[in-house]
Amino acid sequence: MSVMSIRVDDEKKKKLKAIASLQGKTMSSIIEELIDQYIEDAKKENILDEEIRSVMALSEPSFDEWDNDEDEIYNEL
Q1: 4: helix, strand or coil
Q2: Whole-model pTM?
Q3: How many Cα neighbours within 13 Å face the side chain of 72?
Q4: ∠9-33-55 over CA atoms, to 5°?
Q5: pLDDT band at 25 (very low <50, low <70, confident <90, very high)
Q6: What is the full DSSP assignment across 16-75?
Q7: Which burial class, exposed, middle or buried, applies to 27 when counting CB atoms under 10 A from its CB (0-12, 13-18, 19+)?
Q8: pLDDT digits (tens, 9 = 90+) for 47-70
Q9: For residues 23 and 7, what is the distance between their CA atoms, to the nearest angstrom?
């Protein structure tokens, strides 16, 4: 599993954290659920898996450049 960093307005972050707490969830689990839903919606819109794989293949070299030993510490989080 990898780490993804996003910038979010402070007020939105506070609201998300409060909602997560009330639901007994983590902010990460909520974001992961939203990502899963976004992917499912894309499938419903007939964005083909082959198209997704081709875009991912094009971007793979860029991701390789970002991956380095210094970031390994974040994999444990």
Answers
A1: coil
A2: 0.59
A3: 3
A4: 85
A5: very high
A6: HHHHHHHHT--HHHHHHHHHHHHHHHHHHTT--HHHHHHHHHHHHHHHHHH--GGGGGGG
A7: middle
A8: 767 777 777 777 777 666 656 666
A9: 23
